[in-house]
Protein backbone atom coordinates (compact mmCIF):
# COMPACT_ATOMS: atom_id res chain seq x y z
CA UNK A 1 0.00 0.00 0.00
CA UNK A 2 1.48 3.42 -0.88
CA UNK A 3 2.49 5.72 1.98
CA UNK A 4 -0.30 8.24 1.29
CA UNK A 5 -2.86 5.57 2.14
CA UNK A 6 -1.87 5.42 5.82
CA UNK A 7 -3.60 7.35 8.57
CA UNK A 8 -1.07 10.07 9.42
CA UNK A 9 -0.83 13.20 11.54
CA UNK A 10 -0.99 16.54 9.72
CA UNK A 11 1.76 17.98 11.98
CA UNK A 12 4.38 15.34 12.86
CA UNK A 13 6.62 17.43 15.16
CA UNK A 14 5.70 19.24 18.41
CA UNK A 15 7.54 20.69 21.43
CA UNK A 16 7.52 18.76 24.72
CA UNK A 17 4.97 19.66 27.42
CA UNK A 18 2.89 21.84 25.10
CA UNK A 19 -0.61 21.94 23.72
CA UNK A 20 -0.83 19.96 20.47
CA UNK A 21 -3.62 19.69 17.90
CA UNK A 22 -3.56 16.16 16.45
CA UNK A 23 -5.29 16.02 13.05
CA UNK A 24 -5.49 12.42 11.82
CA UNK A 25 -5.76 12.44 8.03
CA UNK A 26 -7.85 9.56 6.64
CA UNK A 27 -7.51 9.32 2.87
CA UNK A 28 -9.59 6.25 2.03
CA UNK A 29 -11.86 3.47 3.28
CA UNK A 30 -11.04 -0.25 3.30
CA UNK A 31 -10.94 -0.96 -0.41
CA UNK A 32 -14.34 0.16 -1.70
CA UNK A 33 -15.98 -0.10 1.76
CA UNK A 34 -16.65 3.20 3.57
CA UNK A 35 -15.17 4.00 6.99
CA UNK A 36 -17.75 3.83 9.79
CA UNK A 37 -15.45 4.23 12.82
CA UNK A 38 -12.06 5.70 13.77
CA UNK A 39 -10.49 4.68 17.10
CA UNK A 40 -7.40 6.57 18.33
CA UNK A 41 -5.29 5.14 21.17
CA UNK A 42 -3.70 7.92 23.25
CA UNK A 43 0.06 7.29 23.71
CA UNK A 44 1.56 7.04 27.20
CA UNK A 45 2.68 10.46 28.41
CA UNK A 46 0.12 12.38 26.33
CA UNK A 47 -2.23 14.12 28.75
CA UNK A 48 -5.72 15.62 28.77
CA UNK A 49 -6.83 14.54 25.29
CA UNK A 50 -10.07 16.22 24.17
CA UNK A 51 -11.71 15.33 20.84
CA UNK A 52 -13.27 17.73 18.36
CA UNK A 53 -16.89 16.70 17.69
CA UNK A 54 -17.79 15.92 14.06
CA UNK A 55 -21.28 16.44 12.69
CA UNK A 56 -22.83 13.04 11.94
CA UNK A 57 -20.37 11.16 14.17
CA UNK A 58 -20.93 10.00 17.76
CA UNK A 59 -18.03 10.46 20.20
CA UNK A 60 -16.89 8.06 22.89
CA UNK A 61 -14.09 9.00 25.29
CA UNK A 62 -12.61 6.20 27.40
CA UNK A 63 -10.74 7.08 30.58
CA UNK A 64 -8.61 4.89 32.86
CA UNK A 65 -6.93 5.27 36.24
CA UNK A 66 -3.32 6.44 35.97
CA UNK A 67 -0.48 4.42 37.46
CA UNK A 68 1.26 7.75 38.13
CA UNK A 69 -1.11 10.68 38.92
CA UNK A 70 -0.02 14.19 37.92
CA UNK A 71 -0.94 17.74 38.92
CA UNK A 72 -2.69 20.16 36.54
CA UNK A 73 -4.02 23.59 37.52
CA UNK A 74 -3.43 22.73 41.18
CA UNK A 75 -5.54 19.54 41.01
CA UNK A 76 -4.34 15.96 41.26
CA UNK A 77 -5.28 14.08 38.07
CA UNK A 78 -5.80 10.37 38.83
CA UNK A 79 -7.38 9.26 35.54
CA UNK A 80 -7.00 10.36 31.93
CA UNK A 81 -8.20 9.66 28.42
CA UNK A 82 -6.74 6.50 26.85
CA UNK A 83 -8.94 6.10 23.76
CA UNK A 84 -11.20 8.29 21.59
CA UNK A 85 -13.71 6.78 19.16
CA UNK A 86 -15.66 8.52 16.40
CA UNK A 87 -18.55 6.41 14.99
CA UNK A 88 -20.71 7.45 12.03
CA UNK A 89 -24.35 7.82 13.09
CA UNK A 90 -25.87 6.74 9.76
CA UNK A 91 -24.61 5.20 6.48
CA UNK A 92 -24.82 8.68 4.91
CA UNK A 93 -22.38 10.01 7.55
CA UNK A 94 -19.70 7.36 6.80
CA UNK A 95 -16.48 8.38 5.06
CA UNK A 96 -16.75 7.06 1.51
CA UNK A 97 -13.59 5.59 -0.02
CA UNK A 98 -13.50 8.29 -2.69
CA UNK A 99 -13.38 11.03 -0.03
CA UNK A 100 -10.91 12.37 2.54
CA UNK A 101 -11.52 13.54 6.11
CA UNK A 102 -9.74 14.48 9.34
CA UNK A 103 -10.39 13.47 12.93
CA UNK A 104 -9.06 16.00 15.44
CA UNK A 105 -8.16 16.14 19.12
CA UNK A 106 -6.07 18.38 21.34
CA UNK A 107 -3.79 17.19 24.14
CA UNK A 108 -0.62 18.05 26.03
CA UNK A 109 2.52 16.42 24.64
CA UNK A 110 4.83 14.35 26.88
CA UNK A 111 7.49 16.17 28.89
CA UNK A 112 10.29 14.04 27.42
CA UNK A 113 11.62 14.40 23.87
CA UNK A 114 11.36 11.36 21.58
CA UNK A 115 8.81 9.79 19.26
CA UNK A 116 5.31 8.78 20.36
CA UNK A 117 3.08 6.54 18.28
CA UNK A 118 -0.69 6.84 17.99
CA UNK A 119 -2.28 3.52 17.00
CA UNK A 120 -5.43 4.13 14.93
CA UNK A 121 -8.08 1.54 14.09
CA UNK A 122 -10.11 2.27 10.96
CA UNK A 123 -13.30 0.17 10.91
CA UNK A 124 -15.20 -0.07 7.65
CA UNK A 125 -18.53 -1.61 6.66
CA UNK A 126 -16.43 -4.52 5.36
CA UNK A 127 -13.06 -5.09 6.99
CA UNK A 128 -10.79 -2.82 8.96
CA UNK A 129 -7.26 -1.44 8.95
CA UNK A 130 -5.23 -1.33 12.15
CA UNK A 131 -2.63 1.41 11.71
CA UNK A 132 -0.75 0.23 14.79
CA UNK A 133 2.71 -1.05 13.83
CA UNK A 134 5.58 0.58 15.71
CA UNK A 135 9.09 0.34 14.24
CA UNK A 136 11.68 -1.74 16.05
CA UNK A 137 15.17 -0.25 16.61
CA UNK A 138 16.82 0.30 13.23
CA UNK A 139 13.53 -0.03 11.36
CA UNK A 140 11.92 2.89 9.48
CA UNK A 141 8.19 3.73 9.45
CA UNK A 142 8.34 3.29 5.67
CA UNK A 143 9.35 -0.37 6.20
CA UNK A 144 6.01 -1.10 7.91
CA UNK A 145 2.83 -2.22 6.14
CA UNK A 146 0.43 -0.58 8.65
CA UNK A 147 2.40 2.01 10.66
CA UNK A 148 0.95 3.89 13.62
CA UNK A 149 0.83 7.68 13.25
CA UNK A 150 4.14 9.07 14.54
CA UNK A 151 4.77 12.33 16.40
CA UNK A 152 8.29 13.53 17.15
CA UNK A 153 8.49 15.37 20.48
CA UNK A 154 11.21 18.04 20.52
CA UNK A 155 12.87 19.24 23.74
CA UNK A 156 10.73 22.02 25.22
CA UNK A 157 11.95 25.61 25.50
CA UNK A 158 11.74 27.69 28.66
CA UNK A 159 8.22 28.86 27.70
CA UNK A 160 6.95 25.40 26.77
CA UNK A 161 5.74 24.46 30.25
CA UNK A 162 2.14 25.60 30.00
CA UNK A 163 0.27 26.51 26.83
CA UNK A 164 -3.45 26.52 26.05
Structural summary, described in words:
With 164 residues, the chain is mainly beta. It is built from no helices and twelve strands.
Properties at a glance:
five-stranded antiparallel sheet; disordered C terminus; four-stranded antiparallel sheet; mainly beta; 12 strands; 51% strand
Task: Give the strand order of the largest sheet, numbering strands 1, 2, ... along the chain.
Answer: 6-7-4-10-11
Mean residue pLDDT = 90
Oligomer: single chain
Q: Which percent range fits the helix content?
A: under 10%
Strand content: over 45%
Number of strand elements: 12
Helical element count?
Answer: 0
Alpha carbon gap, first and last residue: 37 Å
Which structural class is indicated by helix and strand composition?
Answer: mainly beta
**Which value, in Å, is the CA radius of gyration?**
16 Å
- Poorly predicted regions are 158-164
Main β-sheet description: 5 strands, antiparallel
Shape: globular
- Write down the secondary-structure element order: EEEEEEEEEEEE
Quick overview:
This protein is mainly beta. The chain is 0% helix and 51% strand.
